[in-house]
Amino acid sequence: MRTVIVADDLTGAADSVVAFAGAAVALDPEHAWPDACVVAADTDSRYAPPEVAQARVRAAVRRAERAGARVVKKIDSTLRGHVAAEVAAAADALGARLVVVAPAFPATGRTTVGGVVHVDGRPLSERRHGGDVAALLGEAGMRVRTMGLAKVREPGLDARFAQTGGVIVCDGETDADLDAVAAAVPEGALLVGSGGVTAALAGRARAPRAVRVKSGPSLVVVGSYSDLARSQRLALIEAGWTPVTLRPDGLGPDEADKAVRDALTKGDVVLSVDPDVPVDRSRAFATAQALAQAAACAAPDAAVLAATGGETARAVLAALGAAELRPVGEPEPGVVASRVPGTDALFVTKAGAFGDRETLARVLRAVSDQEE
């Protein structure tokens, strides 16, 4: 094991290692890690209490350090989760004198300009800190400076990093900007970023798009509550997929399992909560479990099993009894196809906020075209 990428959710963990050949995702970092040169340790801490998130990150970093691996801290490209607390915990556990933060992910429309995260050219205004990365990290007591695009693109970036300490937030608009940052970070420093900077570490050798799958129907589980995920669900239905919906007061577990399996005998299926029922986030965990149980029971009948949202994907894998993922391809930026040891279905993950209305339909159509 030469590199460990510590991520706070499953979809981000998968995306962070898909560019590396033979990489794996550890779904339970407290137990055995996969035998791979590059491992993403999913601490499953995005929605945990801050102190729990920090403890999990410290444990993963210390374990990686004991194994002699380089540590990279994966964060969400739109700064969701306990970004400041987890970066502070990772830096402390590593004893890093220098922390270089490069959150941009240009392939998915995420850039950093003036230290502020932008999505499709617009500042990330819905967060409390307005997308200002330095302000966010400052909440954890870190001394933070911002390095603008001109400095990132100047020759001698490695020397500038070597001569400084503290936390540096680097602007980035292109893959070339991230390539320069990743190449210049000195040994012993903590590199922090999203899938953009981990792809830079891998040398941009993103995995091949063509992934062979067995013949059969596809099952998509939409557990994300985002408006985009809902529109992607609707696009699948318009493309001829059969919807199966769960209501809090509707199908029981056995009925849901049967409904999904029966629908798969007729073709592709999209499983979700009922979009007409108001969102009750206090029931998010129970809802994810119900969706996951139905999907896991139907998995033997599906050639492709896909999940939107890290919580949903993790719940499905837990129901399948999976301990690891082996990413094998990236049909589109932010969408990862993986093998799950012990199952035949190809497992596709996508963050709920990634892509456009047609992303799921487009990706699954392309994957299905690769049938053996």
Automatic annotation (TrEMBL):
Protein EC: 1.1.1.262
Pfam families assigned to the protein according to its UniProt record, in alphabetical order: NBD_C, SBD_N
Keywords attached to this entry: ATP-binding, Carbohydrate metabolism, Kinase, Nucleotide-binding, Oxidoreductase, Transferase
Transmembrane segments: none
Domain of life: Bacteria
One term of GO molecular function: 4-hydroxythreonine-4-phosphate dehydrogenase activity
Major enzyme class: oxidoreductase
Domain (Four-carbon acid sugar kinase nucleotide binding): residue spans on this chain: 219-360
Domain Four-carbon acid sugar kinase N-terminal: 4-201
InterPro entries: 4-carb_acid_sugar_kinase_N (IPR010737), 4-carb_acid_sugar_kinase_N_sf (IPR037051), NBD_C (IPR031475), NBD_C_sf (IPR042213)
Membership in a protein family: Belongs to the four-carbon acid sugar kinase family.
Name listed for the protein in its UniProt record: 4-hydroxythreonine-4-phosphate dehydrogenase
Organism: Actinomadura verrucosospora
Lineage per the UniProt record: Bacteria, Bacillati, Actinomycetota, Actinomycetes, Streptosporangiales
